[in-house]
Amino acid sequence: MEKINPEEIRIEKLNEAHENITKEIKSYEPELVNFLVEDALNQQKRKISVTYLWFLRKTNELLGYITLTPDCVKLKNINPDLCQIFKDKGITYRSLPALKIGRLCVDDRFQKRGIGSLMIQFSISKAKIISQEVGCRFIYLDAKRNKDKSKDAIHFYKKFGFEMYKEDKGKKKSKETPLYLDIWPYIQEELTNN
Ligand SMILES: CC(C)(COP(=O)(O)OP(=O)(O)OC[C@H]1O[C@@H](n2cnc3c(N)ncnc32)[C@H](O)[C@@H]1OP(=O)(O)O)[C@@H](O)C(=O)NCCC(=O)NCCS
């Protein structure tokens, strides 16, 4: 299948007019369909998260969606080497600001065409913007585990350099794996390019 290029995509912030369109989404993860159809707009109106719908310009088909929300990561739960780097720089907070990918879903009919990767790039650009306005150092998410390895999203995220985030001791085992990405290299990259 051919990759879909960024120019072929239109991104719209979810609103009331999308009600019927959201019902078209198809995903092997029923929770991701339910969230979009039932909860996403409600949460957005209450300023808890923002959902972006991705459309194929040519046909107006819904390709998928991504939901973003502010969060933080605890330094004790990330890579100890990175944690030490912060300490060496005099950063002694227990947690640091992050952008959470609350949901990320590419419609089953459009998978493996590069949209998921573009959504990760989109979240990195949003995190970079927030980093300039109020500070943001990480992207955080809970990746869905799937017994079928080809559907296990962890491997997808690892391709982008996401690392395992240690679960708090005593926390109940969940069906999701927390992962984080340090966006510092992307911020540095921009500084070098400018
Ligand atoms: C996981 C998901 C977002 C990937 O989206 P996608 O548009 O198919 O991904 P891309 O086409 O951008 O793939 C990028 C790379 O990751 C690989 N990849 C995609 N899904 C993968 C998976 N589940 N496991 C391993 N690798 C995967 C692709 O083969 C591709 O590799 P390449 O660059 O070597 O060709 C998508 O399958 C999805 O929405 N799944 C359902 C819900 C889900 O699990 N969402 C995540 C919730 S946390």
Notes on the structure:
A hairpin with a 5-residue loop joins strand 2 (50-56) and strand 3 (62-74). By secondary structure, this protein is α+β, with helices and mostly antiparallel strands. The protein has one domain (6-193): Aminopeptidase (3-Layer(aba) Sandwich), CATH 3.40.630. The chain has a seven-stranded mixed sheet, sandwiched between helices. It is built from six helices and seven strands; from the N terminus they run E-H-H-E-E-H-E-H-E-H-E-E-H. The protein is 33% helix and 27% strand. The chain binds coenzyme A (COA). Coenzyme A binds next to strand 4, helix 4, strand 5 and helix 5. Coenzyme A binds at residues 27, 29, 32, 104-106, 111-117, 141, 143-144, 150-153, 155-156, 159.
Distinct bound molecules: coenzyme A
**Average pLDDT across residues?**
94
Distance between the termini: 35 Å
The dominant shape is globular
What is the CATH class? Alpha Beta
Based on helices, strands and strand pairing, what is the structural class?
A: alpha+beta
SSE order: EHHEEHEHEHEEH
Q: Any idea what the radius of gyration is?
A: 17 Å
According to CATH, what is the topology? Aminopeptidase
CATH architecture: 3-Layer(aba) Sandwich
The total number of structural domains is: 1
What about the largest sheet?
7 strands, mixed
Q: Report low-confidence residues grouped into runs of 5 or more.
A: none
Helical amount among residues, as a percent range?
25-40%
Total helical elements: 6
Query: Could you give the order of strands across the largest sheet?
Result: 1-2-3-4-5-7-6
Number of strand elements: 7
